[in-house]
Amino acid sequence: MVLSVGDETGRIEERIELATRSPQETMPEMLEFFRAKGISALGIGSFGPLDLDKSSKTYGSITSTPKLRWRDYPLLSALQKGLSVPALIDTDVNAAALGEASFGAAKGLSGCVYVTIGTGVGGGVLAEGKLLHGMLHPELGHIPLRPLEVDAMPDGICPYHKGCLEGLASGPAIEKRFGIKPALLPQGHEAWELEAEYLSQMCVTIVLMLSPQKIILGGGVMHKSGLIEKVREKTVSALGGYIRRPEILENIADYIVPPLLGDNSGAVGALILAARALKESEEYK
Amino acid sequence: MVLSVGDETGRIEERIELATRSPQETMPEMLEFFRAKGISALGIGSFGPLDLDKSSKTYGSITSTPKLRWRDYPLLSALQKGLSVPALIDTDVNAAALGEASFGAAKGLSGCVYVTIGTGVGGGVLAEGKLLHGMLHPELGHIPLRPLEVDAMPDGICPYHKGCLEGLASGPAIEKRFGIKPALLPQGHEAWELEAEYLSQMCVTIVLMLSPQKIILGGGVMHKSGLIEKVREKTVSALGGYIRRPEILENIADYIVPPLLGDNSGAVGALILAARALKESEEYK
């Protein structure tokens, strides 16, 4: 859990990290930290899935997470009650998309997709200026991919889906397939060719389904030198000239990009959510 | 080309169809029809791809269509000039999504996806109350699918992409694979099992990427009795219980649905675009 204090310009004054233990252990630590800061509003970017339906009785709760101790935990209401400040919640990746669209790689754009490829794969979406929720919120880490014939583990490791993105391309999937942590696999290893292929399938589907103005790829796996270049190349190739836009045909290096805010995309997005929560509360006064 | 006259309540007073020949032949026919009606505004739902970037010099033009005589044709400006009324343009499938969300199967919802499966496959998207454009607009007919081993034509027929949705699941793809028009293939034929499989892969990806409140499946191929039921069943099965929403787990027959406006989804959406064009023009006065 990353806790930050800052302002609506995206400036972070203080930042600490806490281990995600149980609500009983972690919530008092979080409340204590923020109480000492005298914050005026709170923005939350949380792992999910989350209930983001404002008309729902369980609005702001974590729902069917594999982190069993947090399942059905009313995160928003517990923090609101504990801190007595206006608060807004969204997914961690939606917050990151908002942060990057406000002060980062997608600054000024009305649409972007932020994907983190790490211990899992998750994506946040800003579409026509709004964070996309819909029925639930995007869960694009689980889209079906087309496994390659050379892949020794074509079903992947996801307990829910055979051959989904997260099951094939997350950090743990790479480690399971090759028996070594991704960070230790050298740049020329076949693992990276396979990884780039799967991430390019994802980018192709993002372009064709969501048509964002920018695709931002973050998370630990993307730290591998040379990977994003391969993803760009394979994405352009797989689109086959069908999408005749300069972003794709002429300037892909400025279309599929790393986050500009580094590890703070989500924290900055959460600050903006906090500012919105404050504004909404003032409008209701 | 379908030409309709109606009002902002979605009521269609008159409807005719013209063959899509060349702009030189078809445009005068269209202009003549509308001039005689005394319309006060025009809404256009066009085949694409379209340039929908309002800051672009070619805003409202058809771009890289396979209908070569219409390539780079400035459809919006030609109609605006010829009729001297306020006009708005969007894709045919975005117009259909708007029509269904206003007066059809997705009435009152802030998000839906409308997919037509016919001579091609195209999709329109309403997200958080807005028609999705982004960089271009969704072109979801070309997402990569995972071809089945039993498919004798796993690469499909799309000239741009091996194994994309349109290449595998459009009407012409079915006809090429089985040598007979889809309408003549009986209900129990293996073609429909395969078709439902591919359309369910599409629905799964739509749920995970766009998270709409409703998926509407239209177009000639969907007229086959029993097909939509199979698509629903395979979609729920492939999602594997991961998306724990009542729409998916309890009421899929009310989530993946046929259009309520039949063949008029796009025409009704175009009427709403016309009303918006009129309103915008009055605001600028």
Describe this entry's structure for a reader.
The structure is a homodimer of 285-residue chains. Chain A is α/β, with parallel strands linked by helices. Chain A folds into 2 domains: 2-92, ATPase, nucleotide binding domain (Nucleotidyltransferase, domain 5, 2-Layer Sandwich); 105-258, ATPase, nucleotide binding domain (Nucleotidyltransferase, domain 5), CATH 3.30.420.40. In chain A, 36% of the residues lie in helices and 15% in strands. In chain A, the strands form 3 sheets. In chain A, strands 7-6-5-8-9 form a 5-stranded mixed sheet, sandwiched between helices. A two-stranded antiparallel sheet of chain A has the order 1-2. In chain A, helix 1 (23-35) packs parallel to helix 2. The model of chain A has no long low-confidence stretch (mean pLDDT 96). At the A-B interface, strand 7 and helix 6 of A face strand 7 and helix 6 of B.
Strand and helix order of chain A? EEHEHEHEEEHHHEHHEH
Report how far the terminal alpha carbons of chain A are from each other: 32 Å
Chain-averaged pLDDT of chain A = 96
Biggest sheet architecture of chain A: 5 strands, mixed
What is the CATH homology-level superfamily of the largest domain in chain A? ATPase, nucleotide binding domain
CATH architecture of the largest domain in chain A: 2-Layer Sandwich
* Major sheet strand order of chain A: 7-6-5-8-9
Largest interface: A-B, 49 and 50 residues
- Percent helix range of chain A: 25-40%
The percentage of residues in β strands of chain A lies in 5-15%
Number-wise, the strands of chain A total 9
Inertia-based shape of chain A: globular
| CATH-assigned fold name of the largest domain in chain A | Nucleotidyltransferase, domain 5
Look at the helices and sheets of chain A and give the structural class: alpha/beta
CA-atom Rg of chain A in angstroms: 19 Å
